[in-house]
């Protein structure tokens, strides 16, 4: 059963082929046996999950069950969960128990899911390899000497290792798509404003978006359906109606125009990854799509612009962790200043401190124009490139990452090399667009992700193209061996 997709598991529950309690026990048992070697979970809530599963079974029996009733999933530990620890993988919040649920959590609860626990991640979602977590790195189930990607690495490893049917993630610069690519999953970053950020611990507020990490596009459509929509508690959440994401999954791709950005297939892209993407392009042609060369000339500036904007926003957002209101407080402070300084010094890890320093510097009075303002101008140029491209095409196709998963420790001493692993994902966040990553042919037994980028609020089109590709191929069904 654990090898079935979320859609198939929901169906099996509805037909009574398995109960939610049985399915939840199956996953809890797998977590118990396999997670010691992966470290995908920070918190497992066996008792809570079994209670939710028993309630789901009652609803299933009574016939008024919502769409995802009884399906066990996991939440990235960045979403506040009432009564259950929300750590953001930081020592700062190691003992933080949120007094309320994030909107994503409450909406999925209303859709009937069972929550198995909270997944590991990079500290405050800052990272591309899940090595900045205070709870230690996550291992990639395809090769446990390699990283699962980040920052939603725990969610990715958990879904890939079949420790849950699906999971939530967040994507500020690639943190859903990049780990999905490195772990052989489907990961969708929705348009900015599509999903509420209420109760999702803020990293960079103008970029953060929550989305599903699943085995296939159909599962992503089901989860997004439950997550998306206006929320009066988040002023940046769009008052835009939510379409039926499953309705158009099978639409014909004939005549669909797909753009191939020249800049994404240039220097820096691994040759075998490129060949895999080319093979997928051929498949899309076979499905009737028309491929067009396009340009995104400012993409090279996306990483430098992001590493001004994101740290600037994080330095402001993380100011709230002051040892007074939330989280870690140092022992015996001499005075208020000492309390602030030592609580933050002890509570935050190295990467988080690096970002706070860069952000505070970039926002300081003498440098604001040179850095922050400049980065915002570049951001506009990047958004304009996409607007121009979408005059000619319906979707954009690109690699998700320049290479397959790398070895644990390989890039930890060189932050700039680490930052460059997001070279193909970051522009999308700067422009606020939706994008997803789906698995294509692996390279040397390791997963490769292909990215599809859509127009603002164009999630349905993305899911349709991804679903048709997955109907024609079976890369998304492959599982790591030994699990
Ligand atoms: N890897 C990027 C960073 O370190 C993106 C992280 C994210 O999307 N949360 O900031």
Could you outline the blueprint of secondary structure elements for this entry?
Elements: H1 6-14, H2 20-34, E1 41-44, H3 46-62, E2 72-76, H4 103-110, E3 114-119, H5 153-160, E4 167-170, H6 177-183, E5 186-189, E6 210-214, H7 217-227, E7 257-261, H8 271-286, E8 290-294, H9 302-317, H10 336-347, H11 350-363, H12 369-392, E9 395-399, H13 415-419, H14 426-431, E10 435-443, E11 446-453, H15 459-472
Parallel strand pairs: 2-3, 7-8, 7-9
Antiparallel strand pairs: 1-3, 4-6, 5-6, 5-10, 9-11, 10-11
The structure holds glutamine.
Supply database-style keywords.
483 residues; alpha/beta; Amidase signature (AS) enzymes; eight-stranded mixed β-sheet; three-stranded mixed β-sheet; 15 helices; 11 strands; globular; binds glutamine
What can you see in these coordinates?
With 483 residues, this protein is an alpha/beta fold. It has one domain: Amidase signature (AS) enzymes (Alpha-Beta Complex), CATH 3.90.1300.10. Helices cover 38% and strands 12% of the residues. The protein has 15 helices and eleven strands. An eight-stranded mixed sheet has the order 4-6-5-10-11-9-7-8. Strands 1-3-2 form a three-stranded mixed sheet. The longest helix is centred in the C-terminal third of the chain and has 24 residues. It is globular and about 65 Å long. The model has no long low-confidence stretch (mean pLDDT 97). Bound molecules: glutamine. The site of glutamine (GLN) has 13 residues, from loops. Glutamine binds next to loops.
């Amino acid at each position: 059963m654990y090898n079935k997709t979320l859609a198939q598991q929901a169906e099996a529950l509805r037909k009574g082929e398995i109960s939610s309690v049985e399915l939840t026990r199956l996953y809890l048992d797998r977590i118990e046996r396999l997670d010691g070697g992966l470290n995908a979970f920070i918190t497992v809530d066996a008792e809570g999950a079994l209670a939710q599963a028993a309630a789901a079974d009652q609803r299933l029996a009574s016939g008024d069950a919502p769409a995802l009733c009884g399906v066990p999933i996991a939440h990235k530990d960045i979403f506040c969960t009432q009564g259950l620890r929300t750590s953001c993988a930081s020592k700062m919040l190691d003992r933080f128990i949120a007094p309320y649920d994030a909107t994503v959590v409450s909406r999925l609860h209303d859709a009937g899911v069972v929550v198995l626990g909270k997944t590991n991640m990079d500290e405050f979602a800052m990272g591309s390899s899940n090595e900045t977590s205070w709870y230690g790195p996550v291992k990639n189930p395809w090769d446990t000497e390699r990283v699962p990607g980040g920052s939603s690495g725990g969610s990715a490893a958990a879904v890939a290792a079949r420790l849950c049917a699906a999971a939530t993630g967040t994507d500020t610069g690639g943190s859903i798509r990049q780990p999905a690519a490195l772990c052989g999953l489907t990961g969708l970053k929705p348009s900015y404003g599509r999903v509420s950020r209420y109760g999702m611990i803020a990293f960079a507020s103008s970029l953060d978006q929550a989305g599903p990490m699943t085995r296939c596009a159909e599962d992503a459509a089901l989860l997004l359906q439950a997550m998306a929509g206006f929320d009066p508690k988040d002023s940046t959440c769009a008052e835009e109606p939510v379409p039926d994401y499953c309705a158009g999954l099978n639409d014909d791709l004939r005549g669909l125009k797909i753009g191939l950005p020249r800049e994404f297939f240039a220097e820096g892209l691994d040759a075998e990854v490129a060949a895999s993407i080319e093979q997928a392009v051929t498949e899309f042609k076979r499905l009737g799509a028309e491929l067009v060369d396009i340009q995104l000339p400012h993409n090279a500036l996306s990483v430098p612009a992001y590493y001004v904007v994101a740290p600037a926003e994080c330095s402001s957002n993380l100011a709230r962790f002051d040892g007074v209101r939330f989280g870690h407080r140092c022992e015996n402070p001499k005075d208020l200043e000492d309390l602030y300084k030592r609580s933050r010094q002890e509570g935050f890890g190295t990467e988080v401190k690096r970002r706070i320093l860069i952000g505070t510097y970039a926002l300081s009075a003498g440098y604001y124009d040179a850095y922050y303002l400049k980065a915002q101008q570049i951001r506009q140029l990047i958004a304009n490139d996409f607007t121009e491209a979408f005059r000619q095409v319906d979707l954009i196709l690109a690699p998700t990452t320049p290479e397959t998963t790398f070895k644990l420790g390989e890039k930890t001493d060189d932050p700039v090399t680490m930052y460059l692993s997001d070279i193909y994902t970051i522009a999308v966040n700067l422009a606020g667009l939706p994008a997803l990553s789906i698995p294509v042919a692996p390279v040397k037994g390791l997963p490769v992700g292909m990215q599809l980028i859509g127009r603002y609020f164009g999630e349905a089109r993305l899911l349709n193209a991804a679903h048709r590709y997955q109907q024609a191929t079976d890369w998304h069904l492959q599982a790591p061996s030994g699990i």
